[in-house]
Amino acid sequence: MRKFLFISCVIFLTGCSAAPHFQTPAPAANAEQALNYKLFENPAIKASSHVQVHLDEAKDITYVQNFGGGGVAVGVAFGPLGVLANISMIQAETDADVEKLYGKLPLPVGVMFGQAAANQAVSYDETSNVRFHPFVMVVRDEDEMLRMGTALIVEVPQQDGTVWNGRYTHQTSLHLPIDDIADGLSDEEHTQIHEAIEQSFDDIVALYVNDRTGKYTELEHVLIESTFLSPRIVFEINGKVLERSDDRVTLRSGAGLISLPLDDSLELKSATVKKRKKQVKS
């Protein structure tokens, strides 16, 4: 699990490098080609740690939070013991949140995703060689608000025998106080969350379909800071804009295709590409 967390951090940090990495487009499918899938379980998503746990028995609702520790400074100041102290404090905070939130989001994730896929003409087929792992993401921010969205891990075998691996992430505009959910959802809150996640799954399947059918053109290169993607310790992530409206932006990044609301959880600015200095011949 520690290895997975390290790799996850590296994925985000690569967005800050001089030569950023971007997820390649999904293997091409023409407009007439039927798209189908079967389900699988990605072990990294199903695993638990001090910063990632689950809020339901099926482990379809992933909860992410990393508050409670002394931050990066503790690790730097006290070395390995500081890191262990951080992990222990964050684990205690995570455990307390799970005790409050477990079972409080009654979302039939499998059913909701299946309907969303059908809405986008992507059919479930147990014989398909394309594999999906859909799940719901719940992320705690510094104000103890919960941001929610969906994610989809995709594996597509290619003719050369390799497997294309991709990720699609969609953040909703929902942000609810943690205590509101801990106290039990009202009918109005339940309807609000259910409808938002339904729409999020619809939109995330559309991201996949558009990616496979070559609908996206990469536009401007930007840098983003997202509370949803990296709460507390915010990484600056490189992205290529694919679509932008008054209230949402869709990007291709090193962490996959990402659709984010243009709200207070996101900072976005134009990227400045550094030019190589000319070498002076002696």
From TrEMBL:
Taxonomy of the source species: Bacteria, Pseudomonadati, Pseudomonadota, Gammaproteobacteria, Alteromonadales
Signal peptide as annotated in the record: 1-18
Biological source species: Pseudidiomarina woesei
Keywords linked to the UniProt accession: Signal
Keyword Signal: yes
Protein's name according to its UniProt entry: Lipoprotein
Record's keyword annotation contains Signal: yes
